[in-house]
Amino acid sequence: MRIYSHQNVHTFTHPAGSFLICSQTFSSGKADPAAPEKMTVKVFGSPASTEVARVLTCLFEKDVEFQLIRVDSFRGPKRMPQYLKLQPHGEALTFEDGNVTLVESRKILRHIADKYKEQGHSKDLFGPGALERASIEQWLQTEAHSFDIPSADMAYSLAYLPPDMPLDGRGVGLPAAGMHPSHRQKMEEMLQLFEKSRKDLGKLLDIYEQRLGEEEFLAGSKFTLADLSHLPNADRLAADPRSARLIESRRNVSRWWYTISGRDSWKRVKELQRPPSAEAPF
């Protein structure tokens, strides 16, 4: 699948000052010029957000033309006015498809997979029938309720803990002196959070290891939303050696991760996640 991207950069004036928003349109280049103009799908948010990354991956999988309006955290707390009308509290994600507006990534995945079922190379992302869809739903719920929180907690704790701090589970504590009490308290909290998330993820990934020893993917023999929904947070785990061992130490989970993270759709999202340079206007 070849993706074509067209980019516009807009300046908005606000009482807080002027700032830039980058708008990019992605299409496969297969549109019929004689066909009536369609209303473009719009995604408001930053590709660095796990919620947004899920949705973008699904859109690339289904070969859906869409416009990405980047409301990037790289630019701080400022938000463009039309985005704030949709998301007054500045949440990470807003999705528009005609008259449909959604803000929860997994609901958006279901919408895309249903509405654009016959598009793209992955026509069975949500399953060809009720039985397959039930299995996919089961794993979507597992990801949302059992994988998402501990994986996000682990990534958060590792971002705070020093990279050279031993985290081998042998009870290595903090330095006895030379640390401000408030900083020590925060470090202890992060260590506890890391240990809890490691235990929770370890138990869950043992279940995944068994399942992936029976099937190539979580819901069966084909890549589906069940696998796709894991990509953003699993990528965070794989990116840090201190958490990557959770994946690498399990042969079937490691094979599964290597397969799903190598998909063209996810590679495209990873390209979009690269922070802009200091010179870039977006």
From TrEMBL:
What are the protein's UniProt keywords? Transferase
Q: Look up the record and give one Gene Ontology term from the biological process aspect.
A: response to toxic substance
The terms under GO molecular function for this entry are: glutathione transferase activity
Task: Look up the domain of life of the source.
Answer: Eukaryota
Question: E.C. number, please?
Answer: 2.5.1.18
Reactions the enzyme catalyzes: RX + glutathione = an S-substituted glutathione + a halide anion + H(+)
Domain GST C-terminal as annotated: residue spans = 129-282
Q: Where is the GST N-terminal domain?
A: 39-120
Which Pfam families does the UniProt record give? Answer: GST_C, GST_N
The entry sums up its family as follows: Belongs to the GST superfamily. Phi family.
Name assigned to this protein: glutathione transferase
Question: What organism is listed for this UniProt entry?
Answer: Urochloa decumbens
